[in-house]
Amino acid sequence: MIRDTTLGAKLWAAAVWALVAFFVINLLAMIGTVVTSSFATRWLGTWLPIGWTTRWYASAWSEFQLGDVLIVTFQVVGMVVLISGALGVTAAYALARRDFPGKRLLVLLFLLPLLIPPITFGIPLATVLYRTGLAGTFWGVVAANLVPTVPFVILVMIPFIEQIDPKLEAAARVFGANTFKLFIHVLLPLLLPGILAALLLVLVRTIAMFELTFLVAGPTSQTLVVALYYAVFAAGVRAVQSIDAMAVIYMVTTLVWLIIALRFVNPTQIVTRAKQQPAH
Questions:
Q1: I need a labelling partner for 257 at 20 to 30 A (CA). Which of 46, 125, 167, 277 fits?
Q2: What parts of the sequence cross the membrane (predicted)?
Q3: What three-state secondary structure class fits 39?
């Protein structure tokens, strides 16, 4: 590969790196400001706070009932992960192994929630859930989050399934394996990296999903990101440091799960590949 060393190419590379550096610096500055404020006794008009304390975390925990919010968050996330995994892996297997009329259209319909902004279909979805009485409940929040997560699992799992030679399944059938044994002893060990990748990314995605959860959550079914929004914009006077402490708890919660996910996920495996045709 020949590297372009012209002046225009060098200027373009410098501009790209400058833009990336500007973004990273601003991002780190915002995160640093929030973290610093969450430990500050008071911070007005100075480079650093005049004192440091951890009492804002205890204040945020009690004032915003973070214990209950975290329990609801993990319950919602756990249920979304389980259901989307079961539905997504099953649908991905059918799409990877079967050819039928309208398959491309069906795949497009499955992937539409990933291609359009959540707020676009979130409002009609919330209307349906309110009419059915699910909005404001735990299961309403789970149902809303399943709309983008099931297609996401399908998108991740199809290339993993396509890598498995169908002859392995046929051989297992020949030796008397039923569908359950075929899945447990043949498919599951081969698909486990893909399943872990899909479910861990669904977990992180659900924790961070604001739009759909905000539209359908009730007082007892709010996840952490929605509770953070209400803490900032709800009526009343609240200490900025307490809200910043809540934001830090949210960032740490998401970051921990993201780090766990990245230990299992190879980002190059998430790219959908066209199925290779066998050579004749």
A1: 125
A2: 12-35, 69-93, 105-126, 138-161, 182-208, 214-235, 247-265
A3: coil
Quote the strand ranges of the chain, DSSP E: none
Exposure class string for 73-99: b at 16+ Cβ within 10 A, else e: beebbebbbebbbebbbebbbebbeee
Q: How far apart are CA 88 and CA 91, in angstroms?
A: 5
Say whether 209 sits in a helix, a strand or coil.
coil
Q: Which of 82, 107, 110 lies closest to 198, judged by CA? A: 82
CA 163 to chain centre: 25
Question: Residue 85: what residue type?
Answer: G
CB 218 within 8 A of CB 136: yes
Residue with tokens 């045709």: 277
Cβ 148 vs Cβ 209: under 8 Å: yes
- In the numeric block, the tokens 């200027």 are attached to 11
Q: Cα–Cα distance between 164 and 188 in angstroms, integer?
A: 11
**Nearest-CA neighbor of 63 among 270, 280, 241?**
241
Q: Is the pTM of this model over 0.85?
A: no
Length of the chain in residues, anyone?
A: 280
Give the tens place of pLDDT for each residue, 156-209.
888 888 888 888 888 888 888 887 888 888 888 888 888 888 888 898 889 989
pLDDT tens for 91-149 read: 998 888 888 888 888 888 888 888 888 999 999 999 999 999 999 999 999 999 999 99
Angle, in degrees to the nearest 10, between helices 224-233 and 188-208: 10
**Are 159 and 272 within 8 A, CB to CB?**
yes
Amino acid at 202: V
Task: Let me know: does 232 contact 243? Beta carbons within 8 Å.
Answer: yes
Q: Name residues whose C-beta falls within 8 Å of residue 193's C-beta, 6 or more positions apart in sequence.
A: 160, 264, 269
Q: Which two tokens stand for residue 142?
A: 């789970």
The one-letter code for the residue type at 249 is I
